[in-house]
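Format notes (please read before filing issues)

Several people have asked whether sequences and structure tokens are stored in separate files. They are not. Every record keeps both together, in the order shown below: the sequence lines, then the token lines. Line labels are part of the format and must not be stripped during preprocessing.
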Amino acid sequence: MTDNGKKQWLIPDAFYPETDNGAYVSHEAVCVLNTGDEDAHIDMTLYFEGREPRTGFHAVCGARRTHHIRLDRLKDDDGKGIERGVPYAILVDSDVPVVVQYSRCDTTQSELSFMGLLAY
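Then the structure lines:
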């Protein structure tokens, strides 16, 4: 199959809620689809309103595979996760073309909500 997608994607509206309601945990995911013949090495940079960006977040999406990168489980090179309750944006860089979708599951209320969209 041919390489589809692009090497850089932007997600301008990311947010990991501070609280959960019940046993199901609020979370976000960067969903990567790699239709190419080489593994995709992913680097993510987080941008904030009032402070410098955070780097050091990495993942791999295998060739001809998909990978749902759960941001509530992702750690940077120093072992630190993503803070809850702080709005941010994500720059996704890949060394091969991929397609990126962002999804958010918000369980802060009993009627949980889900949002999914293609990145830019």
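For reference, the curators noted about this record: The two ends are 23 Å apart (CA to CA). The domain at 6-118 is CATH 2.60.290.11 (Hypothetical Protein Tm1070; Chain: A).
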